[in-house]
Amino acid sequence: MRVDLFDFDLPPERIALRPARPRDASRMLVVRAEGAFEDRIARDLPAMLRPGDVLVFNDTKVIPAQLEGRRGEARIGATLHKRLDLRRWQAFIRNAKRLRPEDIIDFGADVTALAEQRHDDGSWTLAFQGEEPVEVLLERAGRMPLPPYIAGKREMDEADREDYQTIFAREEGAVAAPTAALHFTPQLLAALDEAGVKRETLTLHVGAGTFLPVKAEDTADHAMHSEWGRIEQATADRLNAARKAGNRVIAVGTTSLRLLESATGEDGVIRPFAGDTAIFITPGYRFRAIDGLMTNFHLPKSTLFMLVSALMGLERMQAAYAHAIEAGYRFYSYGDASLLLPD
């Protein structure tokens, strides 16, 4: 499909620079297959769901994955993208033209990395030096990797260290937050429990590739970056049992959705999964694992707007986003939520 079909006019002031406080006070647009859109707030979620529905969350934890360093006199910026092994990460590099294989980058605080090789997409493999765990090095020298549309407008501060983590964050490895879950509070979870809504978790370590623009003119020519994920056998069993009983599986966030769909066969059975996924969902895709999605509002021509258009239909999502823009909803990572229920 032509990428320009997914374009729309988004006023820059609609991109949220701070989250709602409290988190569950954020707005939530309910979009069904037909009928009027419903303007709600996140804490209304229990009333929008049915007893037995299962919400699936991503328990990945964002690491301080942005680094500023030097190679000689040259300033080098690195955003870690994907872990390769205990000491090596694939990273997007700023000022990469000043970098050569075997160069050492000094990130300060006694943190250095060897630039091993450049990849076809322009990223580099960095091998961190020394014996301390890389997680310790990043805590010392790294910063939280705020999305570029926020970082370009304000400096990161101490509040972001908490604001950019979900309450489910447990498994370290993401360089971007699964932001749909940022709307959840202990109070909202208690209300969901009381309403009989179940919840499960999986792990998908979100990579910086989620922020990369689609440069191709046709979706068929866009290459997704892979991300590592895991679904346990027991989790898959419970989700399959819920669907067999006629209950809905609703992904909280596009990351949860993409991993669930990657783990599900043509027969609709969700299987345990551990490995990389580069699934790219566009209109025409037949969903196998999920019956709904809670997600934030996405940017024009992004792979995520393509995904929600695949779920609800392009015209329906164009109308929903036009409504959201007119009604003052806040977009993207720190923005408001939408609840998409296709059936």
Indicate the topology.
Elements: E1 27-32, E2 38-41, H1 45-48, E3 54-58, E4 60-62, E5 66-71, E6 74-83, E7 88-94, E8 104-106, E9 112-118, E10 124-128, H2 134-141, H3 148-151, H4 158-163, E11 171-174, H5 186-194, E12 198-204, E13 227-231, H6 233-244, E14 249-252, H7 254-262, E15 273-277, E16 292-296, H8 303-312, H9 314-326, E17 337-341
Helix pairs in contact: 8-9
Organism: Croceibacterium atlanticum
Catalytic activity: 7-aminomethyl-7-carbaguanosine(34) in tRNA + S-adenosyl-L-methionine = epoxyqueuosine(34) in tRNA + adenine + L-methionine + 2 H(+)
Family: Belongs to the QueA family.
Q: So, CATH architecture of the largest domain?
A: 3-Layer(aba) Sandwich
Rg (CA only) = 20 Å
Per CATH, the class of the largest domain reads: Alpha Beta
Helix content: 10-25%
* Total domain units: 2
- Taken in chain order, the helices and strands follow as EEHEEEEEEEEHHHEHEEHEHEEHHE
Q: Provide the residue-averaged pLDDT.
A: 95
Strand content is 25-35%
Shape assignment:
globular
Per DSSP, the total helix count is 9
- The tally of strands reads 17
CATH topology name of the largest domain: QueA-like
- Strand order in the largest sheet: 2-1-17-16-14-3-12-13-15
Largest sheet geometry? 9 strands, mixed
Terminal-residue CA separation: 24 Å
Which ranges are low-confidence, i.e. pLDDT below 50, for 5 or more consecutive residues?
A: none
Q: Quaternary status of these chains?
A: single chain
Class based on secondary structure composition and strand pairing: alpha/beta
CATH superfamily of the largest domain: QueA-like
